[in-house]
Design a protein that fits this description.
This is PhnD/SsuA/transferrin family substrate-binding protein. It comes from Aquibaculum arenosum. Strands 1-2-11-3-12 form a five-stranded mixed beta sheet. A five-stranded mixed beta sheet has the order 7-6-8-5-9, sandwiched between helices. A two-stranded antiparallel ribbon has the order 4-10. The chain contains nine helices and twelve strands. Helices cover 32% and strands 21% of the residues. By secondary structure, it is an alpha/beta fold. The protein starts with 5 loop residues before the first strand and ends in an 8-residue tail after the last helix. It has helices at 18-34, 50-54, 66-70, 126-136, 155-163, 174-183, 213-228, 233-239, 254-260; strands spanning 6-8, 59-63, 77-85, 94-95, 97-102, 117-120, 148-151, 169-173, 191-196, 200-201, 205-208, 241-245. It has two domains: 6-86 and 202-256, 3-Layer(aba) Sandwich (D-Maltodextrin-Binding Protein, domain 2); 97-198, Periplasmic binding protein-like II (D-Maltodextrin-Binding Protein, domain 2, 3-Layer(aba) Sandwich).
Amino acid sequence: MPGRRSGGLPMYDLPELIGQTDAWWLGLVHHLEAAGLKGLPERPCRPDAPEELWLAQDLALAQTCGYPLTHALAGRVRYVATPCYGAPGCEGPLYCSAILVHADARITGLADLKGRRAGVNDWHSQSGMNALRHSLLPYAGSEPFFREVRVTGSHRASLAALQAGEVDVAVVDCVTLALLTRCAPAETEGLRRLAWSAPAPGLPLVTRAAAGDAELESLRRGLAAAFADPVLAQHRAALGLTGLVVLPLESYDVIPAMAQAAPQDFWG
């Protein structure tokens, strides 16, 4: 397709790893071009809001979260593949969220979170909202579970709020937690994992809804080549990437099923 295309990897794009992310993206572009896809940017697009990238009419490739994939983006993007990560809490293309509390908190189980203050990164996040709600359903009653819920805007902000004592519990996806523990360890100090959430398919790669079958196959062929390229191994390792799987789209149905199981007044 002629002309410049949009593409990027906004979900795990930590400033501490920007050089590795840019190098990995350039490697992806090389292999995608070899598979017949032209016009991709040499550096990943970084819009202020990832929705701008996900819904771009010229989108070639981007990573999103499973909750938008099955909700706001349903029918508006096309699933490509699911990267696998080597973080604790991951198994193949599946990942979990870590439910975190302060290290010295008198909280020994999930039931102890009732009536406390929670930090969630976004109302449309699988790892930072839906996974927490689903984990607490066995303890939910007829009234809101938490005394207060703060929407922090990001996983890092949720961790900061927990460290500062502004919330009593936060939930962070296992890949983000592993990357921050390695690259910004001060941001995870003084916290402990209370539990893992139930697993769900990891953060998918998508393209625009209008992409045809031939382009989809080219995307998958180029991605497979990039994941197998030994020259890019150091960048994959730095980003925690271990492989790539093409899942049936129905695999993501577990995410809306988690959401639909929750009572309407769970959050208050």
